[in-house]
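Consortium newsletter contribution from the modelling node. Members have asked for a concrete example of what our holo predictions look like. Here is one, prepared for the zinc ion complex that several groups have been discussing at recent meetings.
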Amino acid sequence: MPAPTRKTALAFMAHPDDAEFLCAGTLVRLADAGWKVHIATCTAGDCGTTTETPWAIMAVRTEEARKAAALIGGDYHCLGEPDGQVVYDKPTVRKAYDLFRRIVPTLVFTHAPKDYMLDHEMASLLGRAASFIYGAPNASAVPLAEGSQVPYLYYCDPVEGTDPLGRPVEPTTLVDITAQLEKKTEMLACHASQREWLRAHHGTDEYLDAMRRWVGARGQLAGVGAAEAFVQHRGHAYPRDDLLTELFGAGGSKTCL
Ligand SMILES: [Zn+2]
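And here is the predicted structure:
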């Protein structure tokens, strides 16, 4: 399938900073290649604090997410769901459909179907469902834009690369982000409140280092300095050719791009 003429990528994630951890290097590459990038989260991160009120921390975190997206000319969106309460129900599904209808993505990233916490799994379901149906005229009251179609869909790594039962997830696609690591780190560093919160909650201060270790480990799979890993959704009606391979390099499954 030829690459879509509409170059609009959407990272549809659960929480502010998930995209920066899991796929921002690839988003940087897409932006550099002329794609419009959107980052959306289901929640505004109201539980990501030990000291602030939900309202105060949500204001801080949405601003951090907006700044991170803006570093690559991207837009930030939030569905406004509470942390720990992202569910696959009709109101939330409708919000996701409406969001997709406004953005009209041709390439979508979301969480792995099985991940360490359920907000991620529900976001994955919402992203999958919205990808499939948003182009159907009756799916949303938001006007149908030209170019609305089932997008390429990629699942990011689950946290630590394993499903909740500890089984490793084998990627279909590795994207070399060695040259984009500095910008990805800059985007993640926009989430300053989380560096502080993680220090308080986990007793460590390795927000950026944990990310660097992970993309380094994924990079080792293909002999490059840093990589992001994905599993492409290849179910009925979804584009099945590996768009990321077509965009960033030759090679088939598990070839680093
Ligand atoms: Zn998360």
